[in-house]
Amino acid sequence: MPVPSSTAGGPRQFHPHSSRKSNIEYMFGIVGIPVTEIAIAAQAVGIKYVGMRNEQAACYAASAVGYLTGRPGVCLVVSGPGFLHALGGMANAAMNCWPLIVIGGSSDRNQETMGAFQEFPQAVRTSIYGRPGSCYIDIPGDFVNLQVNKRSVKYVECCLPPPISTAEHSAVSKAASIIAHSRQPLLIIGKGAAYSHAENNIRKLVDLCGLPFLPTPMAKGVVPDNHPNCVAAARSTALQHADVIVLLGARLNWILHFGLPPRFRHDVKVIQIDICAEELGNNVRPAAILLGDISAVTKQGLALQKSLPMNYYTVFHHIRELIPKDCILVSEGANTMDIGRTMVPNYYPRQRLDAGTFGTMGVGLGFAIAAAMVAKDRTPEKRVICIEGDSAFGFSGMEVETICRYNLPILIIVVNNNGIYTGLDADAWKEMLKFGDPATCVPPVSLLPNSHYEEIMSAFGGKGYFVKTPEELQNALKASVTDKQTPSLINVMIDPQSERKKQEFPWLTRSNL
């Protein structure tokens, strides 16, 4: 006896209901026996059905929806050639790691192959958990129009969003240390980063650390292509010279030349961040592996960055981004002046003063005072910014009193590495003193660690800042640039072993140290 229509239904209705409860919004396909009724039922529950002209294009469209929305699109096909035409889209989704569900019809079922309505929610979960990919659901022809009692059907609730996994803390620390000691690091941003909506955290990482980046084709826009750190225009050069590569949801496949020479350095260190454990170590043995969600792992890196010392290049990146373009720049020091010449550009003539032809140390604050006096009379809106190494600052640091006495709103930035060229951190300094008199055991290039030069400015009524992290540096720069009335000094602590990039020829850098 047939079940009354008020309580009747079948997969043509229940599959669309399951789809809607699983937050499926789009279905693409070509109808025919036995799946036409499924498309009609899908529209009835609010799923948008788009009839295509070829199953291959329909499957490509459904997979793209999965990438764009994070929930699988559905491709509806008939059996035989229809399903075969969809295989290209399924393979494409699998390789791109995009969630996709393909529903196909087949011949009538026999008693041994009875399916369950719960298959669809399971397919949704399988398609989006872990590394996303494609799933296939086969619906026998007689199953589509089967009549059952609606009250006997139990719907499975929508699966929860994919769990967000983070990397091991030790792995994050190791990766951060490798980056901190690199000379030419490069971030390679893959579409996995785009899929995980990691753009905000990755942009913060690029901006805070001043890291250059290269997007793969479908990761373009995670960080804007017009960002000054984008090296896409010099892709080959960037890949060949990077000593550390950070893979953010990117794979070392043919698009990236498998990570092998001659496109990459033979000694390049690879830091791999991926949600799929099976992908880690493909083609190149990583120096550090971080298994987890790209956005979450990047956030871990940002949190850890606050505890790591900066280097010259990070400091100058933030200075360049935050100081006025029309300021008068004064600079002196060894690495500080040399790196500053390339990292901090000038846009107008006669607005840079440094050690000059005679290579004189100690000129900085005198030059800055002169520039401020001239600017006060001729261009009072123009700022004077004096960037000093800690050794160079020591030559004429007491001129800070002169600056405060005449209320000259000069911003002094001391890049402090505890030494001349290089120094020692506080722990190493204490250990060194155990060997005896500092005059006989402390390296001649070392200065007292963590000297608070900013307190000299504070002592005379100006504003002093002691900063150790990119965020603290940003805040101090913004406050100092905004205050156009008060002299200020930012004492920026960096890694004592931070140096400039190795020169390709000796010139004045020749030394046995």
TrEMBL record:
It comes from the Eukaryota. Residues 338-492 form the Thiamine pyrophosphate enzyme TPP-binding domain. Residues 21-120 form the Thiamine pyrophosphate enzyme N-terminal TPP-binding domain. Its EC number is 4.1.2.63. Pfam families: TPP_enzyme_C, TPP_enzyme_M, TPP_enzyme_N. GO terms for molecular function: 2-hydroxyacyl-CoA lyase activity; magnesium ion binding; thiamine pyrophosphate binding. Its cofactor is thiamine diphosphate. InterPro entries: DHS-like_NAD/FAD-binding_dom, HACL1-like, THDP-binding, Thiamin_PyroP_enz_cen_dom, Thiamin_PyroP_enz_TPP-bd_dom, TPP_enzyme_TPP-bd. The keyword Lyase applies. Belongs to the TPP enzyme family. This is 2-hydroxyacyl-CoA lyase.
